[in-house]
Protein 1
Amino acid sequence: MTTTGLWDEVQAWLDGHWDPELSVEEWWRVVAAAGWTVPHLSVEQGGRGMPRRAGSTVRAAFAEHGALRPPGGLGLLMAAPTILTHGTPEQVSRLVPPIVEGRVGWCQLFSEPGAGSDLAGLTTRARRDGDRWVISGQKVWSSQALEADYGMLLARTDLDVPKHAGISWFALPLDQPGVTIRPLREMTGLAVFNEVFLDDAVVDHADLIGGEGNGWTVTQTTLYFERTGIGAGGGHAGFPWPGPKGGMLGRRAGDAALDEPPESSVQVLAYPDVVELARRLGRTGDPAIRRKLAQLHTLTETGRWNALRARAEAESGRDGGGASLANVGKLVQTRIVKLAAEVAVDIVGADGMLAAPDGAGGGQATDAFVFAPASSIYGGTDEIQRNVIAERVLGLPRDHRPDKGIPFRATLQK
């Protein structure tokens, strides 16, 4: 189906189904039942069997119609596709529908104070206790943890095997006594990220995804969907927030449809935003600005083409490097985020030193510029992306790993 055909189909469906008097929870159930929340999934999985790029068109069509868009969040971006790939039928039927219907929010509990780029070096422990696991450790840089109901948790379940082999992936309920979440205030003035302390928190064995000790393989799936979502051309769906803590479910759908992302959201500029800023401030004739805008446009289009190629590879089932194209997309997106912020500050001039609300355009350029360095870190550092591309695509030799083949317990004793 063409984009125009899909757009028309969505608009026709909304003509017959959009009801602003429903609650958000009721509306999202209707949307999910029709397969519009995740149209790229199969009908059996709750979708419509469409190409992966269909999601962006659907969300845009909802917005154009004035209807509340399907829910966003990290559950849809990462948790649901990971569980669909590695979960048992029981896990899929229990955990995925609440995500698709926007009834629960998720966060990612991967990075630790001593395990960021070397994620496999994590030390959070999971100890088996009958039909449950007891978790102790600390996680950091967890986006949306305060608003989440579940966490995608990586924990070490075996110290006596090499570090990549002793990790497991859990769906951890966050609303329990053993979980403490603390916001991390950043130089942007916001607290987008959080640190999470786990003190004998518990998770059922039934919520171990992919099998004990297979967490590193499951993690690669999660990271693939993260990088394709936040990479250039990925169209990651964030707002509107899912779950009861997002504050949306009990509201009238018609009122929620009028919402803009909250002010606490991260400010990231794209090419159209920067062009509009240049036009509004009369800077489109400046040769230096025009040169950077051309570069930004080139990166944006290159990223979009790369994303289309990655999706085509994934949809064809061919082993054409689709996973590694996600790493390329993430690198390109980093360059776009930084260059867009740089050009915006150049455009506003001295006002670029003023943060919100005093700066030009409410401090939009300044906020984007201060946040931009984070783009080289979240979703995997630029260095990690380059290593993956070098080793898995170009076939370059891997760096020497002194801990290769050594039980993780032995590395802790050194």
Protein 2
Amino acid sequence: MKKLKNISIFGTSSDAGKSTITFVIAKIIQELGYTVTPFKAQNVSNNAMACIDGSEIAVAQYFQAEVLGLEPCYQMNPILLKSGRKSSASLIVNGKTVANKDVLEYYRDLDGLKPAVKESFSYLNKQFDSIVAEGAGSPVELNLMDKDLSNVYIATEFETKIILVADIEKGGVFASIWGVYNLLPQELRDNVIGVIVNKFRGDMSLFDKGVKIIEEEFEIPVLGVLPYIPFNLGFEDSQSLINYQQKSKKDAKRVAVIAYPTMSNYNDFEPLIADENITLEFIQNNILLDGFDQIILAGSKLVIKDLEWLKKSGLFAQLKSTKTEILGICGGYQMMFKSIHDPQAVESQEPISVEGLGLIDDDIIFYKEKIVKRDTYNIFGKDVDGFEIHHGVSKKYPLYYEKDNIKGTFVHGLFNDEAFEIYKTRTIKYFVEEMREKLDVTRIMKNISIKP
């Protein structure tokens, strides 16, 4: 095995581009002939994917694994937190839901999760030449540093080399680089091999003086200044939706996606964004829906809560009466039934039943045991390589429903097809090539190579 040192990707702020830089660095290392895997100790995201063994991990690590041609597994993301009721979160450990925990309780019990993180990292470390470990948020939130699994814990426990990623688009790039670097513990500063300045717009030469300041005055090597390139893949959070860009034909089909507060798995819509024959709009308030050709009810982490939001917003009444085609996916599918029953308080403080849209003649019942499954499904007259992640169950329509203008399914991945796979492959290839050209790969490899 041609062993390399492992790498931590630290952002100097949230949404600095850690997820994309992680797979770019990993892909470059792979193309140099090494085996490499992504990793994130703890992710906070409502967007999850089902692995082949029935475990679930955050979409970012799943996507990073796909880029590298790896079979995604829970070891790549051993801890996942999803939105819960009020101040709680759904805690997923090693791919399985174990509890709903109050945030304060979660932080109090954090040491109990470190063995799972350590075991997963150690497992991957034996399988691969190098691990590229994505951090979370900023690594120097001083009040939380002792509760940080993804940044300081990993970098300290496994002595990873550290690459900082700074988002110049936000402004304050010099302060963020200098501040994060100097607030790191000394042993971690010693392992910083440099900084990547990300999301630069315009003439790159305008930042030549900036590079000089960072290298000469801050004494931090600049590993590259990367341009802002729209990347409509691997959507991990709501910020991704804000940043997506779409090119559509004038006569494109207008599709509305109802974006309720805890919408989840919006990577379902990446194929639609890539399709120039579709104009996609995310709807967050009660606008008139009659002008759309199709309405999609997206996945939801908290189905009952988002259903109540539909009622308060006024969209519920529109959806009940519209003649436009409606498609429900997972949580959205469940909202389309006559009623939703939560007898075991899976989503609620106490057992509850609520009225659904009444578009499908059956009820949904929530069970504590979550269905997590990846498979090839035959739905709506075609084969879909997709997955399920849900607590709700319909006895009459356990997989999908179709009648008149109403369609729905528990299955994610409905829009993926061969054309989208070709688009995805080309987009990733172009993105990695553009980034590689701007990165100092020689300096990175020199710092992570282990001398014989």
